[in-house]
Amino acid sequence: MAIRFLLLASLTLSPCLSPAWGATAGDTATAKPTSEWNQWGGSSTRNNTPEATDLPTEWNVGEFDFRTGEWDPSTAKNIKWVARLGSQTYGNCVVADGKAFVGTNNSGGWLPRYPGDVDLGCLLAFDQETGEFLWQHSSEKLKTGRVHDWPLQGICCAPLVQGDRLWFVTSRGEVRCVDTEGFRDGENDGAVTDEESRIKAQAASAGAEYDMKNEADVLWVFDMMNELGVSQHNMCSCSITDCGDTLLVNTSNGLDESHINLPAPDAPSFIALDKNDGRLLWTDKSPGENILHGQWSSPTYAVIDGQPQAIFGGGDGWVYSFDPAGDGQGGAKLLWKFDANPKESTWILGGRGTRNNIIATPVVHDGLVYVAVGQDPEHGEGVGHLWCIDPTKRGDVSPELAFNSKSPNETIPHKRIQAVVPEEGDFARANPNSAALWHYSETDWNDDGEIDTYLETMHRSCGTVAIKDGVLYIADFSGIFHCIDPKTGKQNWSYDMFAAAWGSPLIVDGKVYIGDEDGDVAIFRHSADPKVAMKEDGGEMTPHFGEINMSNSVYSTPIVVDNVLFISNRTHLFAIEKKDE
Predict the structure, then answer these.
(1) How far apart are CA 558 and CA 546, in angstroms?
(2) What's the CATH fold of domain 5-399+434-576?
(3) Which pLDDT does position 207 carry in this prediction?
(4) Where does the signal peptide begin and end (predicted)?
(5) Domain segments of the chain as ranges
(6) How wide is the angle at C-alpha 458 spanned by C-alphas 457 and 459, nearest 5°?
(7) Cα–Cα distance between 385 and 433 in angstroms, integer?
(8) Which of the residues 92, 168, 199, 451 has the least number of beta carbons within 10 Å of its own beta carbon?
(9) What is the pTM of this model?
């Protein structure tokens, strides 16, 4: 396969880059191996950089019967175990409490009461060591159909796990707390909903005795559609995080099937719940009528300069930061907000415009916030933006402010389709309070006088950044994998995977792993130097450790726990471990 790759004509080594220059496998993995990865990104700061040693760079997933999904391990290599998922898997795996949890649909047919042809949103639990199926949480599809609960799109988020408790967002627009043991411990821990009685009654109506051991044990439910009037677009998906006893949740409030009307403009976009009982603490509807499409970003939490911050990506293309304690009266307390789109960018149906919303999760690293903009992958390719934001400023910290010539010294309210319309007398002016430290979009890095449409352009992205040793990586939906200096925004190198990337990079053990829609996992050496990160193969530059095909599309992000690599493709979850020869 031909590979496109950009090598800068001249590269300047800065002190912050030196640990990763020339890095080889194991050079940076001196800490104790990570023993749990309990949420999306591993922690509330969302930076996918666990610790591990001697991770595999070669494996073979074996063969599969595509009619039954059965695994034939005869040709497999370095595969510890394989678990059957559904037919479409977008949820990222987390591993905690001795179990691997992943969201998918019901095509795997694990439960007798729900055969594989019954469409559900499913959260599955497997034994971390053996891959044995343990239990399933089942979310029946909403009767309103694809406007709220798209067919075959199951649970698309990752849960949060702490001890024997797990919190996640269902495809029905609910926040649920469950016991990580399910009913395998023989106990019904549900304090609010009697899930056991409901399930047994359903089974009895079909004239069947039912063994509860593979069922989820639900403690409490907060229904965002019924309680808050939320109307999610196509699906509800948010990988929640916490700060103390507070859960942070994006409600997914969005447009209806017309892609024009907003059914619930006054419904909140961001909420905080009590972790213990699901009690509503505060709400915020800042995106309001300016929601462009849907809202599927996940929140981030960090304490920055002594100030706790709950950071959300909005469906209007703005980043918002709140005090997670709220205002004490059920409302939010805004710290800062940041418009991540140029003011003259335009929203056009079907992805034909230049204005984007935020699907990626903000990442906090060394006291700075990093976030990219994007759109629904079905909208195709387009120009994107990656920002580095100083979160210590307050108020409107956007790069520019919008004005109108009738009152040139008064800012005008934000407008959904186009914030600044020159034909109406609008204009933008640099914001003296801007928190933008750098912006990565289109740059002629090799000084040839032209912008390469692919390798010198940041495109729309669903993915988050990963940062370690002064090197940042991010993949975009045009299939370009970017390596950037996180302090300056200068590009070190970029690489064309020739397939869209939905997930995010993993930095671990001196390596960088990234999957794509073609099912390939590219493995680079972790380095700002392209000659170290990649190797020459037949006159082409390729990832240093090559690419490995997973037999089906990889929409998820690889993670590592206890020196085992976990990767899910559309239909299976793989535990990958380097074995003795």
Answers:
(1) 16
(2) Methylamine Dehydrogenase; Chain H (2.130.10)
(3) 57
(4) 1-25
(5) 5-399+434-576
(6) 105
(7) 20
(8) 451
(9) 0.94
Give the integer Cα–Cα distance in Å for 64 and 88: 16
The first and second tokens of residue 448, run together, are: 């040839």
Burial of 299 (0-12, 13-18, 19+ CB in 10 A): buried
Residue written as token pair 């920002």: 387
Name the residue with tokens 């996180």. Answer: 486
Sheet strands (E) in 413-510 = 426-430, 436-440, 466-468, 471-475, 480-484, 491-496, 506-508
pLDDT digits (tens, 9 = 90+) for 94-145: 999 999 999 999 999 999 999 999 999 999 999 999 999 999 999 999 999 9
Contacting residues for 579 by C-beta, under 8 A, at least 6 apart = 78
- The tokens of 194 are what? 């009697």
Listing from the earlier edge strand, what are the strands of the sheet with 300-304? 300-304, 307-313, 318-322, 334-339, 395-396
- Kind of pairing between the strands at 63-64 and 5-7: unpaired
191: tokens are 């304090």
Find tokens 């880059």 and name the residue. 17
Phi, psi of 475 (to 5 degrees): -105, 150
Cα dist. 504→269, 388, 409 in Å? 24, 17, 42
Q: What is the DSSP string of 80-131?
A: EEEEE--S---SPPEEETTEEEEEEESTT--STTS-TTS-EEEEEEEETTT-
